[in-house]
Amino acid sequence: MGIQLTAIHWVYLVFIVFILALLIRRRDTTMICVTGILALGLLATATLSGSVSGIFNSFVYATKELLGTIMIISIIVAMSRILIITGINETMVSPLTRFLRTPAMAYWGIGLIMMVTSFFFWPSPAVALVGAVLLPVAVRVGLPALGAAMAMNLFGHGIALSGDYIIQGAPKLTADAAGLPVSSVMQASIPLVIVMGVVTTVTAFWMMRRDQKNGTWRDGLVTAQGTAGPLSAAGTGDDGQVHMSAGLRKALAIAIPLLFLLDVIAMFMLHLQGGDATALVGGTAVLILIVITLLAHRGQGQGLEKITAYLIEGFIFGFKVFGPVIPIAAFFYLGDSAFTELFGQVLPDGSHGIVNDLGVALADHVPLNGAVGAVTLTVIGAITGLDGSGFSGISLAGSIAGLFAAAIHSGAATLTALGQVAAIWVGGGTLIPWALIPAAAICGVSPFELARRNLKPVLLGLAAMTLTAMLLV
């Protein structure tokens, strides 16, 4: 016999519907999430003070759960800043420019370099690391600036960010919401990310070459410069290059990739995943930041102060990105073990959390199968990405994947990964214009034209990925 659903279960379900409705209308969901937490707290504690306190406590809970992810992103951005102003990033990437001799080589070369860089640095700082160096080379060999922006977008904000196999921020969010190990979600996402990535990038390239031959290509240029990265406008007020000898810069440009390569080797050798792998990358980035900052500012005697300044800049970026995520995550964490931890044992005996209970009830009343679950998760992931964050809704995707998997008794990891990949491809920076600004800005093209160019390839990729998930569930 299934778990008896209570008012708490129904209220939680109603608020999920409200949140989806707001996302479809591209409205902010923070207020509705806070209202949902308040309503659930009122039902659980039957006191106004307990429900109001529950809002703050749920925010603290969500922040604790997300803190590792926020920290690694902040540290990577801080390190990227010093690499940019010392010119080390240019030295790191410049040897690769000799391989970009044709438009096709430039498209695939920029894309693959952006993907690899984004795995370690995340796409936003990677745009600054890669774009400023490779864009002039690509344009010189005949690749349009918009084509370069598409490549950076699809490979960085699409393939690399949706899988997120090194930093592991995205799979941790979805795995936690679905109650699964991070490793299982990452493993399940590999075929989905491959199918999505191949279909999308090949389609985008084919459409670009077709339109160029037909004379219907529009580059959507909005500025002539296209060399100012998104990180150059904010931060320490030290926007100029910091002088560093060519020999030292070259030595550091070799040492930094080697250090991260050693991290990857250590992950495989020591079986480090999830938080342990993130900690290794984060600690390495902090040490790189400290050493390079001390070397770069040693002549001015400001090295110690600059370390703090770069870290502050990184933390500002990190909390700006995750500010909208925390209230949403706070609500969706209540669907699992967080509810009992914050409000006590008020769910029925035998309950395994609100979401799991709803899944069991759904299995008793609604005929679900893998195909229906796959299509639904893709649609939900895409809808949650409409806010242009990519990350704010993947907790919802994880929760619903857990619900569906409980109903059909299989495919939990695949459905969770499917929702994650769909949400990040749509909202992480390939379709929503305001999320495309970093790549569009560095290439000097219109974010709206870039979104229009990405639309058909991404939709085809989502369809192909959904079909693949149906076979795997």
UniProtKB/TrEMBL annotation:
Signal peptide: none annotated. Keywords: Membrane, Transmembrane, Transmembrane helix. It comes from the Bacteria. The chain crosses the membrane at residues 6-24, 36-60, 66-84, 104-121, 127-143, 188-208, 251-271, 277-296, 308-334, 366-386, 393-416, 422-443. This is Transporter.
